[in-house]
Amino acid sequence: MERLQLIYGSNTMRISEKAKTLAQSYVKEPDAFSIVTLNYKETPVEAIIEEAQTLPFLSDAKAVIVEDAFSFTGAKVRSEVEHNIDLLVEYINNKNDDTLIIFKVYSEQLDNRKKITKLMKSKGKVTEISEMTEQEVRSHIRSVAEKAEVDMAPEALDLFIQLVGIKYDHVTNELEKLLLYVEDTITREDVEEIVSVSLEQNIFKLTDLILSGRKAEAVRLLRVLILQNEEPMQLLHLIISQLRLLYQVKLMQGEGYQGDFIAKSLKVHPYRVKLAGREVRKYRQEELEQKMVKCRDIDYKFKSSYLDRQSLFELFIMEI
């Protein structure tokens, strides 16, 4: 195994799982002394290197996991310490200890122009953790259920995806709840009773209700979301974003483009494009344009009016 590892991507939970698996595989018999976790925002490079060069205590191997190693990206991040990047470059270039170092980077992209990034790619192993596809999520859910010796009915899996979406952290949390609740089989009724609808799926539903003119249902859902401490302004911006996606998908489908190309062009997950593609069949392009103008108007009212934002939002739903 390469003793220099960098794992990057936007899915923090999967990155952490990958780092844990690598560390445990290298150490064999992990304990509090053989696997050390340091936060890059709080720990200077000198301390990270010192920890890596310190021999393991009561163990034959040692792993150091470095959280949020932002220096490999182009992001400007506030940190409690000033890092000596030249020292880190020198260490990576001349690493001679047996410690496994795993840098976790929470970013979809690395800055490949940086010397330290280029060096890491040449001296160690760089792994991208991408978002899972819908089919990968479905396979993951079945695998977890099988390991727990629980069957999952096909209709239950379909409803689970419909309510939760395919974001790994949401899927993991809701699946854990289900597995604690059931004994042998997960049914559609179990999913309806236990699973919480993700904010992303609620926004998709709220947008659908608004577009289809089901105003009373839209207001009820809005009130539920606000009771769950969602901010009206944030909800509005999410709806505007969803409407923009619908409009863009409608335009690109009209030009004959397929889902994967649309997803890459718009830089959104293919699953969102798939759902949007189904939805836009109901509406003409002019309708979507009119709704977006309404959203712009209510956004202006939100920012300029002293009226209660929930009341403004409900009024917007009744008018749109």
Walkthrough of the structure:
By secondary structure, this protein is an alpha/beta fold. The chain folds into three domains: 4-128, 3-Layer(aba) Sandwich (Rossmann fold); 134-194, Helicase, Ruva Protein, domain 3; 199-319, Up-down Bundle (Zinc Finger, Delta Prime, domain 3), CATH 1.20.272.10. The chain has 15 helices and seven strands. The protein has helices at residues 12-27, 45-53, 85-93, 115-123, 134-147, 154-164, 168-181, 188-194, 199-211, 215-227, 232-254, 259-266, 270-279, 285-304, 309-319, and strands at 4-8, 35-39, 63-67, 100-105, 125-128, 151-152, 185-186. The strands form two sheets. It has a five-stranded parallel β-sheet with strand order 2-3-4-1-5, sandwiched between helices. Strand 2 (35-39), helix 2 and strand 3 (63-67) form a beta-alpha-beta unit. Helix 9 runs antiparallel to helix 10 and helix 11 packs antiparallel against helix 14 (285-304). The longest helix is centred in the last third of the chain and has 23 residues, at 232-254. It is globular, with a radius of gyration of 24 Å.
